[in-house]
User: What shape does this take?
Amino acid sequence: MKTRRIFGSERYFDVLVYTLLVLWGAAILFPLLYVLMTSFATEKEYLTRGFFIIPKEWTMDAYLYLMGNDSFAQSFMNAVVITAVGTAISISVTTIMAYGLSKKWLKGRTLFNFLVVFTMLFSGGLIPTYLVVKEFGMIDTFWSLWLPGAVAPFYLIVMRSFFSSIPHELEESARVDGCGEWRMFFSIMLPLSKASIATFVLFYMVGYWNTYFSALIYLNDSNMWPLQVFLRQILVLNQSMDGSATLMEQVITYTPGAKMAAIVVSALPMMIIYPFLQKHFNKGMLLGSLKG
Amino acid sequence: MRSSVTEMRAANESRTSSAAAHYIKRAFPIYLMVLPGLLSIVLFKYLPMFGVLISFQQYSPFRGIWGSEWVGLDHFVRLFTEQQFVTLLKNTLFLNLIDICFYFPAPIIFALFLNEVRARWFKATLQTVVYLPHFVSMIVVVGITVVLFASEFGGINQWLDVIGLPRYEGLNDPDHFRWIWLLQNIWKEVGWSAIIYLAALASIDPTLYEAAKMDGANRWRQIWHITLPSLAQVILILFILRLGSFIDIGFEHIFLLQNPLNLAVSDVFDTYIYRIGVQQGEFSYTTAVGLFKSVVGLVLVLTANAIAKRSGKEGVY
Amino acid sequence: MRKSIAMLLATGLVVTTLAGCSGNEKSPASNHAAGNNEGKTDNAEVVDDGTEKLTLTFMPESWSGGKWREDHPTIKYLNEKFNIDLKLMWTDGPTYVDKLNVMAASGSLPDFYRVSADNFGKWQNEGIFMDVAPYLDQYPNLAKAFPEEQWKMLNPAGKILGMPSWGIEVRDSYQIRADWIRNAGLPMPKEETFNVDEFYEIMKAFALNDPDKNGKKDTVGFATDNTLSGNTAQLRAAFGLANGWKLVDGKLIPQFVQSKEQKDFLGFLRKMYAEGIMDKDFLSKKGANVYEMFQAGKSGLWTHHPLGLRTDTEKLKGIDPNAELIQLAPPIGPTGLRGNPTSLVGANKVVINGTIDPKKQQRILKILDWWVTDEGTDIMKSGIEGVHYTKEADGTYKETPLVETDLPRILNNWFFLRADVNLGTYRWTKPEIAEFDNTFNENNAKYPWKPESGGLEIYSETYSKKWNDLSTKFTEAQLKIVIGESPVDSIDKAIEEWRAGGGDQIIQEMNDAYAKNKSK
Assistant: This one.
């Protein structure tokens, strides 16, 4: 009798959860499909048909056009380098710092933490930051993108709280075994924190991948610009033509398909990487098994 | 008696000095770990902070900070006596309020629900789909909204016509502005924001659930007694940090939705700064407005953090 | 582990650099002061004989990703011709101003660049722009490349700190679907008599009479955006509104105080909106969306240039093979006024850095003096013969596919160009197209609607503080009238508020600047 009641309520629960999630998924999926399919549709269809999911006439023109552009290959490579090295730097610096600051016994910990939080609220602004970056001789180098943003305070704080949630006893027992701090960090804490590290690797990667404003400010050499700059120039073109309002400008016009293709291209690398990181979210920190 | 006291004291002293040595030995590697990140923050965040000085100046890029004319609190007086200051404050607060009430919990709820899904393929697919809108720029999100909801040729209205339901004509209605803004935010970012919670959920000890099941707790109770408490710390931290930007709403999205007719509900500090300062190159004034926002954020974070700590939780610092 | 060591080393390096240069915060200002003196004293004696190879940095804007590769044939040509090493620092158009500001603050401005009118106003006393006036007679081509009034505009008396960043004054006019007019059974408008009533009838037919003959009510009449900018200039001109500012009895007055004209203009739009002639969704549209409706064949009127007319015709034919676009003269208003949208040309400037080696300055002037000749402009527009175009057997020219990617025209069109309305004709342009463009431009120029402020806004402090904000509030009142939420007379209240909120002060400051400028 009792088991049936639980079983019954479990069923309702499942139905509720699945229904809501399917509805939410659909609300997300359809507009996304529209973006995706527009990139395969002709301009005529985009202009005349309004909202559609399946194009009547398929074309790869938008992609061929984007990739045929001189800037594409180079800026893509730049973006890969910026993202790969930047993520490596950021995640290393952030992880060890977050781990260090998670030690409750550390003197000066509150001060350090406050210093970090404070930078989320106050910033010197564009010009002073530029002057500092310039004084360090980092203009026209990728260092100007990597070092100033090496630690994202937000990620650091969240990561720190992940580390603090790891049971204290674990640390103590490791210490009894004669583990040094660095060894403990690498051989015990890191494997335990795969989920959180994967999360912040993803966040940093996306952050670096989407870099465009700092690249425009710090990189005078347009050959060093990352892909996002190129894609953004395609997207925002029509909002800001005032720059040449008096010229009979044969502006390079991009079709709506090319704009949507730009979005697809900018999301693609992250779509490819996401599944690799996602499996860590599901596995968890293996805490249970360790304890047992 | 007395001798034993002095002995104890001596022992204590030697223990403290050796404790200090021990502490240094133990803490040194940790300080080393904190150092690189701290350096980056000090050099690239704190060093440029002399820049806030320009909010007390009439800054000229050629004279620099040391050469520009000092004007005291003029820019702040201008801001506070600005005719629409109250409107700006009201709109900013209202938008942040609905954002915190509806947008902030959304990824938590989504993560909780997703956590209850057993079918692996469904979970993985859904997770992949919902995080994607993060990559669609706001310009496009706003564009799609118009394609769908425009009153004359919008996809939704054409569809509503077909099935004979009344049309939706609220897209330009200033009263709908806030909710459209909120829904677009939720649509775009919920999947992405849920990732942090999903990572936190992954660290819950599965044996806890097994024990709860043995006790006959149903799924609601498991969520309430196990899942939510495990997320509490992350939620608290994100909440406090969210308060830090309570008077900061982000420029691009609002700007895209703004038109002169909905200004009464859509004008916020960021769009005001854009109109007044950025377009007109008024560095000092925009910095002053930014400083005002920062101070408000700081007060909120300090307060929230103090409350959190008093109630025995770990705050953000 | 290795990674973190590398990181430590890197941060260590940074620390040492910091120690080495922490006293340098002042450098931009001091650099500039030094450069300033140099620029003033030595310039006069320096003669650049062209023998020294010089490195020159130009900073052009890059729009929609367009820029030149490093080994661009035109750069090679310029390098050889002028014995220079030309560095083009392409800068993203939308963020150009930010970039210019950080470069100014750090004392690293390029040798030759563009500045907007307001930055030109703010910066012209800083001694960072070269005064070209003393040398202009050495460069006769350059001297006559622009009209006198544009040379002088906003420059201090007797000096030329900035050269005009040129553009076509009256570039655009209405383009209308001729096939729709025929389908609606209306007579084709005649230039001499076409007035706002006729305009109204056409718009009405476009909205209500199924002009595309597809049996569906899927077109709009008059389309504009949510700031009332798109397609409205001709109507504003017809109803007598100022294009920004207007000279009345030697006084500058802004469009915001023209009560009667505002009422006529807004009343006209209000009527169209109430009768379903105007796009019902215009409040959610920005400029680009309005254009898209036109390109999709959902509206039949757009304001554009001749090149736009050609490309749009092609697009529209894909949707409707009968589509035909024609240039439409601006409608005549009740008092006989008419005009096409007109820009103020000459207020934005192209400047030579005043703090660089005088030899470089002279070399830049030498290049510009060549650039504005027929020969120079030809190369800066069409590129290099044999690379970007080839000569055919019949004596005509043919463009090569490389034009698509090399974009030989953009440095001319986006950066520096002489006063010449035929900037869109290239070596390979067919004579009939060149002729068409020419006629189009001539037709436009017949009906200018000039902004009469002369760019003096930059001297009004209240303008820079309040103008945008006041305009936005005023537009709010206008929109309420158009959609019927407030009566037409409510514009008087908006005018009152505009004046009280700082408008009167702006008018005062503008007229002071005007008087001062006149006496100079």
